[in-house]
Amino acid sequence: MFVLEKQRQRAPSARSLQTRARILDAAELVFAERGFEGASIRDIAHLAGVQVGLVAHHGGSKEELFHLIVARRAGELSRLRINALEAARASAPLDLATILDCFIRPYVELAQGGDSHWVAYGRLVAHVSADPRWRDLAAECFDRTAQRFIAEIAALFPGAGPGTVAAGQVYAVSAMLAHVHSAWRIGALSPGSDAVGLDRLIAFCTAGVYAILTSDG
Amino acid sequence: MFVLEKQRQRAPSARSLQTRARILDAAELVFAERGFEGASIRDIAHLAGVQVGLVAHHGGSKEELFHLIVARRAGELSRLRINALEAARASAPLDLATILDCFIRPYVELAQGGDSHWVAYGRLVAHVSADPRWRDLAAECFDRTAQRFIAEIAALFPGAGPGTVAAGQVYAVSAMLAHVHSAWRIGALSPGSDAVGLDRLIAFCTAGVYAILTSDG
DNA sequence: CCTTAATTTGAACAGTCGTTCAATCTAAAA
DNA sequence: TTTTAGATTGAACGACTGTTCAAATTAAGG
Questions:
Q1: What residue in A sits closest to B34 (Cα-Cα)?
Q2: Which percentage of chain B shows pLDDT scores above 70?
Q3: Does the pLDDT of residue B194 top 70, yes or no?
Q4: Where DNA binds (residue ranges) (chains A, B) (predicted)?
Q5: In 10 A of CB A96, how many CB atoms?
Q6: Could you read off the pLDDT of A104-145 as tens digits, one per residue?
């Protein structure tokens, strides 16, 4: 941290930018698929179609690369969620279901929209959220937006303790991630069922959060 | 599978049993901490205080060892849950809150009871549930009991589709695992809050499952 | 006790790991 | 065009990976 990088003297070429993007995309898929330890720089390089040395050149150390990958989409997702929240507030007073919808829907629609990279990103977030090793990374990438939604919910339920709102948020996020990356479990437990069910997920989270907020207010 | 093991001609010594237990316990902690790929046989051997060769002798290949570790506590936990369910049924007609309580409480109380191995087991289950690579292992270890609870819930809500019940089960399990192994996230998002909150978790799951079951009945 | 199955040791095997770097090639800036 | 920062190659580094096995040790069964 706080290391001065030597200032660039030339703009990166189009080829360089393209290579960098291919490496980051490949790293995202491999990290999501196999976790931090299970992912190998060589697998990432091979998937990106480059030499191993290039991964270090564009992504730094393995840990820096992981950090880069996680942070990359966090900003974009945050923006979508905050925008949804502001749009909803403009049209009507916010209620709990709407707030949770603004948090959950943007990501799940991206993940279910056929973009495998957003599905992979969900698995990545699950890894980061589950492992205390990434505590600082989680705080840096997710806390600001999470706190924003927590504050929005807390304003609706002034009697609820802060721990209760935070617990609801964590439970809701875990259900959302399970919805995306454990869909195969749902299918395995109920052969031949429908699949998607975004509204059902939001209904689950809304009812759960509402229940714990009103019972300790 | 279906390989005939050479029949034992002697009972294992007390020391052998003790060594085997130390290796399995060490493997449980290391697998939970670092995942399948991140765990090394040498780390496990070192934690157990034995030579690397002994791990293969008592646990087989790395994959067989992982399988062994996951399956070991699954049976015990299943028994606790089914017992709780039968005991509850004997004293009163089952309702949704009671069924979910019987599923969630046994594990969370073990994990919060100070036994670090049960916390580790939760992380292990999270790994298995998240990764399609362990689909067969998950089916073998968890499906029977999960199906039992799903059937019990479905009987209470005859109008609900099977996919809805399965989704509720998966969401509830994910919230339960998050409760145990993402407690640090709750703490990070709400400094100075209480901590435990098992009843709050069960209230969350009950309300969530009830909501999705009654809305598509 | 003795026999010998079972356990434990210690070391080696062939690969893979993340990282580094001189040499080479590409293309931005002057 | 020339200069040369930056991108890319290809190979090497030591450390670590899971697995195997002959030899030594332990202890159950007779």
A1: A37
A2: 93
A3: no
A4: 40-59
A5: 19
A6: 999 999 998 888 899 999 999 988 887 888 989 999 999 999
Are the beta carbons of B161 and A197 separated by less than 8 Å?
no
Stretch(es) of chain A classified as CATH 1.10.357.10:
74-214
Query: What does the alpha-carbon distance between residue B25 and residue B23 come to, in Å, rounded to a whole number?
Result: 5
Closest residue of chain B to A181, computed from CA coordinates: B130
CB atoms within 10 A of CB B33: 16
Token pair 């949804």 in the structure block, residue: A84
- Tell me how close the Cα of A97 comes to any Cα of chain B, in angstroms: 12
With a cut of 90, say whether residue B48 has pLDDT above it: yes
Every domain of chain A with CATH number 1.10.10.60 lies at 10-70
Measured between beta carbons, the chain A residues lying within 8 angstroms of B126 are 130
* pLDDT > 90: percent of chain A: 76
CA geometry: angle B28, B31, B35, nearest 5 deg: 155
C1' (C14) to CA (B43) span, angstroms: 21
Query: What's chain A's Rg over C-alpha atoms?
Result: 20
Q: Which CATH superfamily is domain A74-214 in?
A: Tetracycline Repressor, domain 2 (1.10.357.10)
Question: Residue B162 and residue A193: Cβ atoms within 8 Å?
Answer: yes
Least confident range from A157-161, A179-183, B40-44, B72-76: namely: A179-183
Spatial separation of the C-alpha atoms in residues B62 and A45, rounded to whole Å = 26
**Which nucleotide, over all strands, has the C1' atom closest to the CA of B41?**
D18
Per-residue pLDDT of B71-85, as tens digits, reads 999 999 999 999 999
Asked if A178 lies within 8 A of B164 by C-beta distance, the reply is: no
